[in-house]
Amino acid sequence: MDFNDTPAEAAFREEARAWLKDNAPTEAELADLNFMQQSKLWQKRKYDAGWACIRWPKEYGGRGATAIEQVIWNQEEAKYPDLPGGVFSIGQGMAAPTLMAWAKEEHKQRYLPKLASGEEIWCQLFSEPAGGSDLAALRTKAEKDGDEWVINGQKIWTSGAHYSDYGILVVRTDPNVPKHKGLSYFFLDMKSPGVETKPIKQLSGDANFNEVYFTDVRIPDSQRLGEVGQGWQVSITTLMNERASIGGGGAGSDFRALLDLAQTVTINDKPAIEDAAVRAKLADWHCKRSGLKYTGYRSLSALSRGETPGPENSIGKLVGAPMAQDMASFAMDLMEMSGAVWDEEDSPAEGLFQATFMAIPGFRIAGGTDEIMANIIAERVLGMPQEPRLDKGIPFNEVPTGAG
Ligand SMILES: Cc1cc2nc3c(=O)[nH]c(=O)nc-3n(C[C@H](O)[C@H](O)[C@H](O)COP(=O)(O)OP(=O)(O)OC[C@H]3O[C@@H](n4cnc5c(N)ncnc54)[C@H](O)[C@@H]3O)c2cc1C
Questions:
Q1: What Cα–Cα distance (Å) separates residue 255 from each residue in 327, 345, 352?
Q2: Mean pLDDT across 341-352
Q3: How close is the Cα of 332 to the center of ligand 1, in Å?
Q4: Which of 26, 177, 272, 349 has the fewest CB atoms within 10 Å, i.e. the most exposed one?
Q5: What pLDDT is attached to residue 250?
Q6: Is the CB of 159 under 6 A from ligand 1?
Q7: Computed from CA positions of residues 150, 163, 313, 114, in that sequence, does the dihedral angle turn out positive or negative?
Q8: Going by CA atoms, what residue is nearest to atom 7 of ligand 1?
Q9: Is 7 exposed, middle or buried (0-12, 13-18, 19+ CB in 10 A)?
Q10: Per the structure, how many domains does the chain have?
């Protein structure tokens, strides 16, 4: 593949670059706002100028851009690493493509533009205590009552549920059929009576995700996406987009910061970078990063041919996340005693390595654990035999649970 921009792509890049230069919010502009206000300000500004969710059709708030233009925009926006955001990623990256593929036209027109503008935030109510990697084993149930469904059960690890306006939800509507066949998919208003959100405190001290309880929550049947019993197929749309949006993970800024650190701290009175063992480790990570970069280019080539990158996206997460964890751990060792101090003002690199060290274990789990990523690569990229699926074809309510 030719990695240079075509003339049209170069013109698009220039336009994006110029707009970002003139419009990216300054530190002073954001100073008195909290993170949510900052994020909403930036998202709305992009939306008003036609730079939000640029791949979406114009009638739903996008720009009708190509996949490559989206990549170019992402590359240019990434040059401003301090821009606020992140709170919209589940709604825009996972809920919206699912709505686009499965929702009624009136719902697309009602919800997509507000997702693009950042006015409304969505969360993903999939995982449960008994249904994570094995999502189809979920137990939250929905029973039909007239034109409504009554939901009872519990979700867990729901990122952003505490500030979300809407959620996408998979539930069991028929326990008498095999697990994948008895699911249905809805979207719901998070302020519905009977929805209770309880924050979960993380290792890092933050509380970004939640337990969400449903007690007789009523959802109109009109908010169902797909047919009753087709929830698994609709979920696949969401999960494919989740994998595509997580992908990557080259731990770029951490590697540059680690290089800087190795030049400032000392081992035996010499800069650490002169130590052979340190150099060997840095070289190893550099090679892995190059591998990830070219794997990313492979996905880009697929996009430029109009194909959708598939299971190979799992490689980025499986390699990138443990590597970022190893680098953070190594950096903290290089800092010796002060590696244990996590302080934005006093720690080298403003506490970046300590923050990564705390956050990466979650990243290695979210959106598919390391083991699940390895399974996907084994089965779907390398074509190895599937692992045994003992509950295949058995009605869900007859699958042994060990509960006696
Ligand atoms: C930071 C973060 C944010 C999240 N946000 C959301 C969210 O917004 N919405 C949402 O619905 N969920 C969210 N999750 C949940 C996430 O999707 C699940 O945690 C994940 O799918 C794993 O499920 P589990 O926690 O039930 O672990 P389990 O599936 O119980 O796995 C436990 C262990 O067993 C291993 N294992 C399981 N099955 C296999 C297998 N077949 N082969 C080999 N090993 C296996 C796993 O790798 C893991 O080590 C989030 C999680 C994290 C950490």
A1: 7, 20, 11
A2: 87
A3: 27
A4: 26
A5: 45
A6: yes
A7: positive
A8: 158
A9: exposed
A10: 3
Mutational pocket test of ligand 1: of 90, 123, 128, 133, the residue with most ligand atoms within 8 Å of the beta carbon: 133
Nearest Cα residue to atom 48 of ligand 1 = 369
371 counts as catalytic: no
pLDDT at 253: 64
Q: Do both 254 and 227 map to the same domain?
A: no
Query: Cβ(369) to ligand 1 under 6 A?
Result: yes
- Quick: pLDDT tens for 27-65: 999 999 999 999 999 999 999 999 999 999 999 999 999
**Residue to probe by mutation, ligand 1, list 89, 98, 127, most atoms within 8 Å of CB:** 127
Whether the predicted pLDDT of 247 surpasses 60: no
CA dihedral 188→90→111→105, nearest 10 degrees, is: -90
- What SS3 class is residue 214? strand
- Domain housing 18: 7-85
Given the residues 242, 274, 307, 344, the one annotated as active site: 242
160 Cα nearest atom in ligand 1: 8
- What pTM value is reported for the model? 0.93
How far is the first Cα of the chain from the last one, in angstroms, to the nearest whole number?
Answer: 58
In a shared domain, residues 227 and 254:
no
Domain-located, residue 107: no
What average pLDDT does this structure show over 196-218? 94
Which atom of ligand 1 is found nearest the CA of 387? 41
Does 171 map to a domain? Answer: yes
CA angle, 98 then 104 then 109, to 5°: 85
Q: Residues 16, 132: one domain?
A: no
Record the tokens describing residue 318, joined without a space: 């499986």
Mean pLDDT in residue range 308-319:
83
Q: Is the pLDDT of residue 4 over 90?
A: no
What average pLDDT does the structure give for the chain? 92
- Residue 1 is predicted with a pLDDT of 63
CB of 358 within 6 A of ligand 1: the answer is: no
Q: Of ligand 1's atoms, which has the minimum distance to the CA of residue 126?
A: 11
CA 133 – ligand 1 centroid, Å: 5
Q: Is 206 in the pocket of ligand 1 (CB under 6 A)?
A: no
Ligand 1 atom with least separation from CA of 125: 11
Lowest mean pLDDT among 70-79, 178-187, 298-307, 395-404: 298-307
Residue 389, pLDDT > 90, answer: no
The rounded distance, in Å, linking the Cα atoms of 18 and 5 is 17
Residue 365 Cα, ligand 1 centroid: separation in angstroms? Answer: 5
